[in-house]
Amino acid sequence: MQETNASAKGGNQNVLLKMEGICKEFPGVKALDHVSLTVKAGTVHALMGENGAGKSTLMKCLFGVYSKDSGDIFLEGRKVEFKNSKEALENGVAMVHQELNQALKRNVMDNMWLGRFPRISRWCPLTSEKKMYDETKKLFADLEINVDPKRVMSTMPVSQRQMVEIAKAVSYQSKIIVFDEPTSSLTEEEVEHLFKIINMLRDRGCGIIYISHKMEEILRISDEVTIMRDGQWIATRPAKSLTMNEIIKLMVGRELTNRYPEKDNVVGDPLLEVKSLTAMYSKLKDVSFVAKKGEVLGVAGLDSSGRTELLENIFGIATRKSGEIYLHGKRVMNRNARESIANKFAMLTEERRATGIFAIRDIQANTTISSLRKYHYKGIPLLSDKKLAEVTEWGISAMRTKTPNQKTQIRSLSGGNQQKVILARWLLTDPEVLLLDEPTRGIDVGAKYEIYQLILNLAKEGKTVIMVSSEMPELLGVCDRILVMSGGQLAGEVDAKTTTQEEIMTLAAKYA
Amino acid sequence: MAEKEKLKKIGDILLNNAMYIIIAVAVVYIAIMRPTFIKLPSIVNILSLTAAKLPIALGIGGCIVLTGTDISAGRVVGLTACISASLLTTVFKVFPGMTSAAPLPLVLLLVIGVGALVGFVNGFSVAKFKLHPFIVTLSTQLIVYGIILMYLMRGVNNGQTLSGLADNYRSFITGTLFSIGGVAVPKYVLYSFILTIIMWIIWNKTTFGKNMFAVGSNEEAANVSGVNVMRTIIMVFMLAGMMYGITGFLDGARIASANANTGLNYECDAIAACVIGGVSFVGGIGRISGIVVGVLLLQIIFTGLNFLAVDANMLYIIKGLIILIACAIDMRKYLVRK
Question: pTM of the entire structure?
Answer without folding.
Answer: 0.79
